[in-house]
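Hi there. Long-time user, first ticket. I'm pasting a complex I've been working with (about 969 residues overall). I'd like to know whether the download I got is complete or cut off, because the file seemed smaller than I expected. Thanks.
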Amino acid sequence: MSALGVAYIIILFGLAGFFACRAQARQLEQRGQKMHSRPLYYGWWAFFVTSAPALLFLLIWTMSSNLYLERRAFSHLAAQNTAAMPAASAMAGRAENSGAAPAQSAGSGLEKAVLSDLVKNLPALGGNIADYAQASYASVREKLLTVKNIALVENGRDYMLPLAVKWLETRRILQKTGGAAAIILAALAFAGSFYYVRPAFRARNKVEQLVTSTLFLASLLAIATTIGIVLSMLFQTVHFFESVSPRAFFFGTVWDPRFSTAAGEAGATGRFGLVPLLAGTLYIALVAMIVAVPIGLFAAIYMAEYASPGLRSVIKPLLEILAGIPTIVYGFFALMTVGPFLRDISAALAGGQSFIQAQSVLTAGLVMGIMLIPFVSSLSDDIITAVPRALRDGSYGLGATQSETVKKVVLPAALPGIVAALLLAASRAIGETMIVVLAAGVAANISFNPFAPMTTITVKIVNQLTGDLEFDSPQTLVAFALGMTLFVLTLLMNIFALYIVRKYREHYE
Amino acid sequence: MSEGAGIEKNTPGGGAQAAALAAVTEEEPAGKRRDIGLKRRYRAEKRFRFYGIAAIIFGLFFLVSLLWSIFAHGFGAFWQTTITLPVVLEAQVIDPDNRLAAEPQSVSDPHFLAMIDYPLLLRRALAQKLGVAADNRAAMREIGQLISPSARGQMRRFLGANPRTIGTVQTIRFLASANVDAAFKGQINFSLPQDKRRISDRQRQWITLLGKEGLLHKSFNTGLFTLAASANAESSGLAVALIGSFYIMLIVLVLALPIGVVTAIYLEEYAGKNSFTDMIEVNINNLAAVPSIVFGILGLSVFINFFGLPRSASLVGGLVLSLMTLPTIIIAARVALQAVPSSIRAAALGLGASRTQTVFHHVLPLAAPGILTGTIIGLARALGETAPLLLIGMVAFIANYPVSPLDPATALPVQIYMWAGEAERSFVERSSAAIIVLLAFLTLMNVTAVFLRRRFEKRQ
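Hi, the file is complete. Here it is re-exported in full:
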């Protein structure tokens, strides 16, 4: 029985505890006992007491037994490896003959993966697994391929089979004992849970404590996510900086990761200069802001100050449709409509030769600007309407026209909020992916020509992390360094924006 | 600002002052109403107003042109051309070595079925209809291009299911090739020279001929929703993407909704005002603004590399998008909880309910519609998200329907991305059609959210 099946049984015990204890509490109540809590709370407490310890035990048991099995098999593998090292590394097709140490570590990493894969797929064959202990790897592979259509890698070794069989058999025994122990634990706890059904036991307080701590734990997930984001990128980034110096990354002006060269070949690390990517990112974001800020801001001013409520209730949702459209749709629009349109129109203007390329900073920036219009307009709209009525009335009373009031009174009052909104919009432009993937191009060059393609950090993250991944080559690892840069960049902008908002929020309240 | 100067003053010194001012601004005789630049100011007012209107018109123009471009590109893909043909299932072509005479059961052998030259049967059937000699090799090759390559698999399945039909004539409906489809819908510009378009003059005549005989049909394209990935535009569909997106939405709903609501309840109803609560709040606000691609990196290194979950699985996609949607749901749920009047809480507490009872029995049911609205909007955003899914390997050619969330799948926006990157022009139409499907789902979700909000507001 799998761990999942055992978990189901434990939960069934928990439910049994719930119903049994609730019924017991009801009976006591009917007999005239004065119970501290309603029967329901005794039921819930019994459910918790019955299932939680057993589930926790099962989880720890499963995790530690998997860890133990892996450790044991890999130590056997290492022993095999040192004995048959030259043959194994030749078989694995590794061309390193420079040093023995790297060959062994790389080889064993590969073999661990092969063995894990074998263990994962061997049970699919069914029957008595022990029969395969003496079989050859090639025959098992053949059988899996023909019978179950599962493809294993070719370069497994025969000595892996006994290891895999032993792994699986021990795992079965461990699973059985662990599962049995967990079920016994649940059964014992079920019997013991009746102890709590007595008048003096404060079941409601206990259950409410439990609920409160669950709520607290759930709210920690937000922090865990942030920590996860930082850690997941930090380790790989540090790893990346072991092979490429931070100076070459942050100040390098050439992006040429050289995908084709084999990993480990000396001097073939490629060049990972951040500058062209950063320049492209900022340039495209700048174009987007040039499009979005005037349109968004003026639209917001019109809606907040001029439009009648009826008009406003039509236009505002219409503009917000733009915010609800997925970015992939904008990317497609840029690729299929805006890019060709700009190319053709420039060809018509210049008489034949088009000077705007279909994939260009202008295309990506323009479409991204369209995407940001509702973002800028609805944020600014909120901020402008939050400016108190009294300020406007004062200005009108002094004889100012409406536009003068907006320009000289309302906007200065709303300025911190608007700056924050623009910062948030800019941070979104920097982190935007799909539009630039489809419309900005992949060539990493530094130029100030808005009609030529440029590339961005996000495009390169997508390029480096789709397809085959090698987590020991800088070609893949650089994506994590890029992601870290992006994260820090947008985080700083967001924090700054939130800081401004917080600082100036209470100004007029 | 000079508004102050425009106020009429009746004090004795005022007249001289006003005259001096008038002399400075414009040369007009004193005693007449002073010009205080009103015309200029009204012009500026008009201009300013015009800027606002222009900005809104620009915004709406972009919206309309975007939607129009998508619909114009993609509307055609909801119809698909098919060819109905009487095919002679010639025994010599199907079984050239006469294997069936010796072992009749081999007709169900997939190996045998895979070896048959189906395109030859189809070419001959078409050539007969079009009156082309079978030995005209150039013409036969062009004839072969009329029918979708997916007809091969269709014939194989047909023969496997109906082995008795060998030697008879069967009328079967096939998908027309993407180029024929385009030509039949009138999307090909025949004024171009022949080598610059996808359909030759001869093929054009044949299409007209087939159309006249009633063998070409344009019908609603159910394949768009039921077929999996394919190398040919006409036989590729959204099924895998729809299933994948469905699983992802389900996982996001199951994970992000309860966790988000519970977090919001903690922050709104339980947490004390201290620096730790402050930290959680700042954290959530920041997470809401983290670029989505960063969540993809998180998914790749935590769920796939660390926990060893399979690549391309919709489970991983669901987990990543759950984390991404969580801040949206938390923020929406907090707003909904804040909107519950505090008199409700006071009344419940005053009647002796505990804090937990107050929250779960009284506050939460009142906040539920608002939470639901926020959740639907969060789900809609997750449905359209592409970038993180690219990094966890959901961008793949998947020909089998995913049975469980652990199977490789794609998602609707990822399928759009993949089709947009195809070199063949016929995929553009499919891609736009997929966008229409995506937008239809998003509209449905948002309309539901608006509807719920309206009902809720009315009831209050």
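A couple of notes from our side: The longest helix of chain B spans residues 38-74. Confidence is low (pLDDT under 50) at residues 1-24 of chain B.
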